[in-house]
Amino acid sequence: MNTLLRCLVCICLTCLLPVSASAQDIADRIWTGGPIFTMNDNLPRAEAIAEGDGQIIAVGMTDQVMKHKGNATKMIDLGGRTLLPGFVDAHGHVFMIGMQASSGNMLPAPDGEVNDIPTLQRVLTAWAEANPTTVERAGFIIGFGYDDAQLAEQRHPTSADLDLVSTDQPVIIIHQSSHLAVFNSRALEVAGYSADTANPDGGVIRRREGSNEPNGVLEETAFFRHFLNCFKVSTLKPRRDCSRLGLS
């Protein structure tokens, strides 16, 4: 009995001794020197974080995390900057936000001034005249944010309306929802849309009343596929510009 008791005491004392990090726990990199947000309610903020072999192996107080430092561990000083987890955004609009930032403002008041179609035409024309470099690089005149529900006419603009902005240059305005757009006649021509064009899967080409001719309003895939593929925006440089603006 005494022998068993002595064994239990030894085991308990052993468990209370400090444990050094094993070879598997040595970090490749340790971050310190700035606030670290973990997004974990049990430990929302930390002083340091250690990573080894692509896995987070320690998060918490600096003195605890530093136990995982080895001779080859790279130390990274945040310099007061905040460290956040990587976010996986399953429904992001980085490109479209960048596109909006580099487009004519078609939003209604109070965020813009487009509350009727004549104003839309005036604002878009003025934007194109003031931004010739953007128009040249994109290959078309672009406006973003109109809302048919807030236009005095209570309808979508049509290709005929946008032809008053330009007939030589493709003109595209994107709805506030980003799920449809309006093309002028030149843009429809470049996209290859005509009375003989069937609606694509998942999209609708709206038609002129009493005719099969497109009226310029394109829904979903009828808009998406040609917005990127038929114009200069399909080249890498404008895409990168839009993505950079969307991130910033």
What's the structural blueprint in terms of helices and strands?
Elements: H1 2-16, E1 29-32, E2 36-37, E3 45-46, E4 48-52, E5 55-60, H2 62-65, E6 74-77, H3 94-101, E7 104-105, H4 117-130, H5 132-138, E8 141-146, H6 159-163, E9 171-175, E10 180-183, H7 185-191, E11 203-207, E12 214-220, H8 221-229, H9 236-247
Helix pairs in contact: 3-9
* Strand order in the largest sheet: 7-8-9-10-12-11
- Our estimate of the beta-strand percent is 15-25%
Which CATH architecture of the largest domain is right?
Roll
Q: Specify the structural class.
A: alpha/beta
What low-confidence regions span 5 or more consecutive residues with pLDDT below 50? 4-20, 231-236
Under CATH, the topology of the largest domain can be stated as Diaminopimelate Epimerase, Chain A, domain 1
Rg measurement, Å: 30 Å
CATH C-level class of the largest domain is Alpha Beta
Ends apart, CA distance between termini: 71 Å
Q: How would a textbook summarize the main sheet?
A: 6 strands, mixed
**Total tally of structural domains:** 2
Shape: elongated
The number of helical elements comes to 9
Order of helices and strands: HEEEEEHEHEHHEHEEHEEHH
Strand tally? 12
Q: What is the typical, i.e. mean, pLDDT?
A: 84
Helical amount among residues, as a percent range? Answer: 25-40%
